[in-house]
Amino acid sequence: MLSQVTGLSRHFTEDTLRAYLLARSTRADNGCLIVRGYGSRRGGYQKLAGRAWAHIAAYVVFVGGYDPTLEVHHDCGAPDCIEPTHLRQLSHADNCRARTQRPRCRNGHERETDPATGRLRRVCRTCNRLAQQRWRERQAAEVARARAAYGRPSC
After folding, report:
1. Where does residue 149 rank: exposed (0-12), middle (13-18), buried (19+ CB within 10 A)?
2. Closest CA to 73 of 54, 56, 94, 87
3. How far is 80 from 43, CA to CA, in rounded Å?
4. Is residue 4 within 8 Å of 60, Cβ to Cβ?
């Protein structure tokens, strides 16, 4: 069964792959099992265990009955979720039909409607505001460290 997963490292067995996935994942408040793959960004393209997609490897190990001609769909909408109850296989056409704009972002915030288009905004404004706030705090700390290094008092 594991041989059907494209890019999966050959040294994994089902038990070792299951342990590997669980060791690299954390449980979110909304019930998702979020996995951390290669790189520092969280997102849909989390590769693990060689060069295999994490959600496909999780479907093979936790659910079973993997058909390589079908796509693995996330019912929760979080592309880096490997919770077995949130994954199911669909044809490409059904997967495209099921892909709608979700009323909440992946962090659980309500999305706002864009007045120009009448559709939900692509970027969550709450997440964006919090990210900018964290960036400003990091920048202020860096400026304070630089001023302290030059012997100038911080404002």
Report:
1. exposed
2. 87
3. 6
4. yes
Contact yes or no for 46/37 (Cβ under 8 A): yes
Q: Are 97 and 78 in contact (CB under 8 A)?
A: no
Pairing of strands 25-27, 47-48: unpaired
Distance (Å, whole) CA 36 – CA 56: 14
What's the full length of the chain, in residues?
Answer: 155
Q: Which residue has the tokens 């295999």?
A: 52
Phi, psi values for residue 25, rounded to 5°: -125, 155
Q: 148 is written with which tokens?
A: 């302290």
Q: pLDDT tens digits, residue range 54-90? A: 888 888 888 888 888 888 888 887 778 889 998 889 8
Over residues 113-142, the pLDDT tens digits come to: 888 888 888 888 899 999 999 999 999 999
Q: Which two tokens stand for residue 125?
A: 């404004």
Q: Sign (positive/negative) of CA torsion 24, 27, 33, 37? A: negative
Q: Are 61 and 16 in contact (CB under 8 A)?
A: no
- What span, in angstroms and rounded, lies between the C-alpha atoms of 138 and 127? 17
